[in-house]
Every structure is written in structure tokens, then in C-alpha cells.
Design goal:
Blueprint (H helix, E strand, L loop, with lengths): L29 E2 L3 E2 L4 E7 L4 E6 L5 E7 L5 E7 L10 E9 L2 E9 L39 E3 L2 E3 L1 E3 L2 E3 L2 H10 L3 E6 L1 H6 L2 E5 L1 H8 L3 E6 L2 E5 L14 E7 L4 H12 L4 E16 L2 E4 L2 E11 L2 H6 L5 E7 L2 E6 L1 E3 L2 E8 L2 E7 L13 H9 L19 H15 L21 H9 L18 H10 L24 H12 L18 H11 L2
Parallel strand pairs: 2-8, 10-13, 12-14, 13-15
Antiparallel strand pairs: 1-3, 3-6, 4-5, 4-7, 7-8, 9-10, 11-12, 14-17, 15-16, 16-20, 17-18, 18-19, 18-25, 20-24, 21-22, 21-25, 23-24
Helix pairs in contact: 1-3, 6-11, 7-8, 9-10
Amino acid sequence: MKKVLAALLALCIVVLPATGYAAAAAFALNISAKEVLRGGEITFSGTAEDDVVLKIIRPNQTTFYMDVIEPANGTYTATITIPETQDFAPWGVYKVAATSGSSTVNKIFSVVEKLGEGGTDPEEPSNPGNGNGNGGTVTPPATTIPADAGDSTGSTIMPELGKDGYMFGSGTLASAANSAQGSITVELPAATGDAGSALNFPAETLKTLKDKNLDLIVTSGSSTIRFSAGSIGTSDTSASSQVRLVVNTVLTSDAKNAVNQALQSNPDYVSTGVVLTATIQVINGSSVTEIHNLDKPAQVTLKLTDDQAKQIHSGLAGVYYVNGKQLDYVGGKLEGNTFKFNARHFSTYTILEYSKTFMDVPAGHWAEAAVKSLSAKHIVSGVDQQHYAPNRNITRAEFATMMMRAVDYTGKAADAAAANSFKDVPAGQYYTDAVTRAASLGIMSGYGGSFRPNDPITREEAVVTLVRTVPYFEVKDTGKGAPAFADKKQISAWASAAVDQAWKLGLIEGDGKQFHPKAALTRAEIAVMINRLMP
């Protein structure tokens, strides 16, 4: 079995080469100690015929270590050094899962403050897992959070470090809420976001936030997540339940493998190495409920290093949800050294560059930059994998779809769509939602109850729509006077003002002399027009 996993990016962890001494035997896992101190070493060894995937989970349920060990002469061994800080190596029981072929062995060890004062026998794991090879990653029962846990200054909470991560209590939140105007901010130590430490707080505080209409802002290292009031939906807000939020911005082996797996099926994408993995759980005793979807999108801000920001092509970069082998475009925008996007659910997100090249839009083509930029934003796409068809006329349905993608990219459009009022726009078509939403927002209109989705859109029709979308973008007047098109009299009266405004805003140019208002718009022209709207 080919080695496919990379070494985990964990501080202070060193993997030693595998050594062997005997013929291959049945798969087994041995741990050198029941307990280990921070800064100390612990060795994992055993017999195996195939590569061994070794995964270790911290007490707060984040990934501490993961690697593939290649056996030599039927045996394998790996020694790791336990980091010396609480953020990277919290005290408690660590769950170990070793997998080789179809076999998995689960064991545990403890990181302790002093040897001999506790720890569990690794030969008798208290939580052996569920038999699916995940290494017993079930969240342990939550401990009670004191009401006064953490400190608050104004509307800002500084959580305190507990056994299972950082925490704040209901009383601390209530105190912050008394000073809050619109939001409460929880400030975690800078390293916690990188390390994937957990934030725990009573579930009843979610009701407090919702009742007081307060957003919850969680900052940790290189990430900030703003949850709208009531966006973390759960029916369990009892005093005995807790919410656990874990955010990790390190490119761990798990995250790297997930991204690489998706990239294998999408060769036009390039990884930037920037990731965010987040999980939300509601814990009541030994019952754990995962919250995947949010009732309202969370606003996520990732702070990049100077090197990361310099290496990212802002016109081609976007945030993607890693959905197995599939990449779902989320959007986002690079502003200085920060990348901002909205997340409707939590899992693994990554920033990728999408550099799509079409055979019929070669380098130097007058629409090349616009097509490439809008392809990266997934506003336009090719007619197939190799061709964009720049000279092909565009229909009104296609135009509506592209324009609404551009408007949605700004994040300023309303979510709700009005009822379909067009008799020639059937339900279930690729353009149905875009057309009805464009009409409800006043961006496009029809003709006597018909939309004419399959008709080519004319240049003057397109410009009217273009101007109606200007409030969703940041377009400035160029200071130019009225256009002097030779065919100005051919422009319909209902389109004349829009053509003048589009000219002054730099959205259109014509061919230098004429506007050709009745001519059909081409796919190259619409790409250039929309690209001029985009920031």
C-alpha cells in the first residue's frame, strides 16, 4: 500500500525511523508507558505486514498526531516528544488508533503533571472506539462549568483554561451582556486557534444571546468567527448541557489529506496551504450532538501571514468547502492580509487558486483576463472543459444566471426570492431561481408576463440590467461626459439613460464609434462587462 499521508504538522513532535527485527506477524500495538510528562518521550511499536496509520487524539478531541509508519522486517516503531505547553499537550487521556490493512487497535495513555498520580492502563482502554477505525474519538462527558469561569471586561470575555480546553461560565457571559451593544467577543490566546484547542461554555448562554439579540464573536490566533444571534441552533439549552467549539487553522495531516484528495479530481486548482477546520458540539452527559448547519451564516476572517498574502493571487483565490472529492465554492475576498468569507456550516475549508485556461481564449485575447477572473469566482464557466465559446451569443436566461452569481458574490443580495411570475419560466430549470430573484430585486424584467429566457439578450437590454446592479458593487464615476455614439438615435428610449450611466461608470466602451444597441451580446462581452463591476 502506497504511503499517502504526510507527517502531522505538530510542534516538537519527532518521528524516528522504523526498525525491525523479525518476520512479519499478526498486527499489534504496544505503548512504552501508561503516563508521560510534557517534554518526555513515548514510543509506539508492534508487528505489521502493511503500512501502519497511527493517529492520536487529545483529551479535547482534536488531532494531536497522525502519520504513516512503514514497517521494516515485519515490525514498526515511532517515538514522539510531548510538547511542553498546555495548548499543544493538555493533561488527560490520549486515545491512540493504529490501523494496518483492515485491522485497527485502540489504546490510550495519559499526559500527567506528575508520574504515578493517575493514568489508565493502555492495555485496557476505557473508550475503545466504535469499531470503525476512528480510534475511539467519542467526546468524553463534560464537566460542570462554574458560572464565574473566565473574566470579562466590558463586552469582552477572557476564558480560563480548564481540563478539557478553555471555558467561560453563564455568569461571566451575563456580566458581559450587560455592557454589550450588538455583540460579545470571546478572546482566546493566540496559539489556541492554531493548536485546535476547545472552547466550552454552557448551552443555556445561547438562549441568552438570542434573547438579547447579541452576536458571538470568537477570536483565536489567526481566525475570527462571528456567529449571528440565534445562528447556533439547538433545542438543548439546559443548564446541564455545554457547547464545545474547536477551531483549527493548522494544515494537519487530516486537513492536508482531505484537500489533496479533492485536488486529484480537480487539476485546475492549486492549494495555498491555508485551511480552517471547525466543529461545534452540544454535550449533555455522555450524549454528544454535532451541529453541522447554522441557522444563519457565520462571518469568518482568516488572518494571513505576510508570506501567505504575497503568494496568493487575489483575483484567482477563493474559499472552498472540502466535501470529500468534491470542492464546493464558498467565495470570499482577500483584503490586505485577511481573507473573509461566510460559512453556512462547519467542516474543513481551504483557500485555493483556480486558474482556468480555455483553448479558444488564448493568452492575449481581449477578454482573457475577465474570463479567467470570473471563472475563478465561478460566475462564468465554459461550454465544456476546454472551450468558453467567446463569440457565441448569450441568452437572457444565461445572462440572468451570470448576473445573479455576480450579485451574490457581493453578499448584499436578499436570500428570499419572490414567486415566479413568468409564464415561460418553468420550475426546475437551471435559471429559474436566478430569473425569479433578479425580478424580485428589480434587476431584470420581462415583457407582458413573459421573460423570453431563450432569446439572445441585446446590448441595450444587458446595459439596463448592468446599471440596476451597480448599488450592489463599489463602482465610481469616471468623470467622463455623455457618450458620443454615432448610433445613439438607435438606442431605445427606455435604455438611453442606462447607456449614458454605464459609459460614465466605465462599464461599456462600444467599438470606439458605435454602441450597436440591438446587437446580441456575446459571452466574451458579458465577461468583460461583469468584470468591470467587480471590485
